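Subject: Interface between my chains keeps coming out wrong

I've been trying for a while to get a sensible model of this assembly. When I model each chain on its own everything looks fine, but I need the whole thing in one frame so I can look at the contacts. Pasting all components below, labels as-is. Any help appreciated, I'm running out of ideas.
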Amino acid sequence: MRIIKDSTPAGDGFRMPGEFERHQGCIMIFPERSDSWQYGGYAARKAFVQVAESIARSEKVTVCASASQYDNARALLPDSVRVVEMSSNDAWARDYGPTFVKNDQGELRGIDWGFNAWGGLYDGLYFPWDKDDQMARKLCDLLDKDVYDKRDFILEGGAVHVDGEGTCMVTESCLLSKGRNPDMTRQETEEVLKKYLNVSKILWLPCGIYNDETNGHVDNICAFVKPGEVVLAWTDDKSDAQYGMSMACAEYLEKTADAKGRKIRVHKLPLPRPVTVTAQECQGLDACREKPARTPGERLAASYVNFYIANESIVMPGFGDPADEGAREILQGLFPDREVIQIYSRDILIGGGNIHCITQQIPE
Amino acid sequence: MRIIKDSTPAGDGFRMPGEFERHQGCIMIFPERSDSWQYGGYAARKAFVQVAESIARSEKVTVCASASQYDNARALLPDSVRVVEMSSNDAWARDYGPTFVKNDQGELRGIDWGFNAWGGLYDGLYFPWDKDDQMARKLCDLLDKDVYDKRDFILEGGAVHVDGEGTCMVTESCLLSKGRNPDMTRQETEEVLKKYLNVSKILWLPCGIYNDETNGHVDNICAFVKPGEVVLAWTDDKSDAQYGMSMACAEYLEKTADAKGRKIRVHKLPLPRPVTVTAQECQGLDACREKPARTPGERLAASYVNFYIANESIVMPGFGDPADEGAREILQGLFPDREVIQIYSRDILIGGGNIHCITQQIPE
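Reply #2:
Try treating it as a single job with all components included. I did that and got this:
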């Protein structure tokens, strides 16, 4: 593995493909952290296994497990899934797995962004995050791909979505937050994204999902289903704090064009009713930096937008909510060639994210 | 990765190729253990890096490093070498890496033998050995190869050599030692080797190198250079304890034919003068199970036979001994199409083995 410091993907003719383009595989991390996953992570691991199984039907899944969880991961996951030993601080392959870029000859490279647990010492979620921050390089090494070193720029994979045709979508609340790159202007941030993802237009949604502890990652509120079309998490309940947030995003998208000058078509994806964590669930979480990891009644950032686009399926969250079926039908309509697989994901959500957050595609 | 329990390589049409057949790569493990490698392993790691670099000139080398050594391994090894995180108890890829078998269609599978640190609680060298014992499976998983589960049979890779044409060579002192499979007869042991390596004839050398703490692995005393031809570690010094041992092996080979009925041609490879460990070296080793790991003056099992056959080179030990050059010339004569690279390997030898012990080929 060569670590590339003196050139950029755009300069070298590499671009980040859209998630809906063909994959050779998917990376996941086996959950274990006792202040993220209640009751020793048993329920979370079951849900992760379901996600891995579903994706593995149409692409090769590699699951990273710690030395102590390797045997257990191997026992719970199907033979078709590859398990490799790799240590981490938690299980968010989207956020600290490599961002892959590809050139016209089909060569693949990774980008290693800096990672600081969603805000570092300012408003990050845990400390330390050293093992997470190593993963992008380690995964590129494992896959025998060269990697761009951009560790001087803090970014998580869930903070960006691209259409593969020159457009990148982010949120202001995340990318301009004080815990990321406080010394950089919006303009400078745009320049990095343009050079590394090889895009020419950044769509700046104002915010993400209410109470999303990632400072509002775009991948929980809005996702491309194809170039020029997005799904946006939505509620019609004006009394919900989310209402104004989703409305602000819709209004922004309404008046903005993508890199190709196309007006963006917005499909509203209704949210489930507010999902809150129970006292019983909180009891099963170890303390995080001497404080309770969650408090009973705390609202979780539940959203159907947090789905993964696999080669032949959409793997999407379900919450046991009356809206589950409608959300599934909307996505099935938008992805007619893929089977929509809905997985009950409350046990992933309690950890702080959902299916998109725990997966990272490797383009073909 | 599928774990195969209900069939054997021979039954499935798989055989272990000779080391001189073409490889797709080589596995190594980064040394770290403080009671094996003096003074924190600095000198050993330098020697391992030289070995990896040499092999990497003609095949892909994968080095397994612990989480804490990953960054250091990445920094010391060239870009062309792949570094993966994998935990182990020590650094002997030959002995607990998978033994690979291959079928006529070119499909590759691994064999996962039981490993008990060269003798378990009877006369093993350290405790515990759980991480070593996991490595064969983990490496097969990493390489996406199915693996035969033969963990009920204790064997190290360095305890067997094959010619790829039906012959396997072992030592009685190792395979019949009380710390391996004490409830099995010689006949039963032969049956396992025949079924798993797909061989029809076992050559039983009586012993290995004097004071070799592996109970005399064959790979330190005798190695195939091609079917029908071996090199045998040799001394003409009748006062040396090794004299009778090498003579006994020569006499055995003299009167024995291989699987194809060929008389075996023996090339004598003179040993260096006895190599003993110094007080200064012993001081740099942590205690092992409350006892000194080595004692000053202890004779080490130095032998030029412990070389690795890479695709385009022979990577062989050197000891700074007058015999180094002669040994190099003999091997160069026997492998005219490969460049012989001699590496000063005292710092590997102090750990208890040599270049063949720290490498494991992956057939093409």
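Reply #3:
Confirming on my end. The CA atoms of residues 187 and 193 of chain B lie 10 Å apart.
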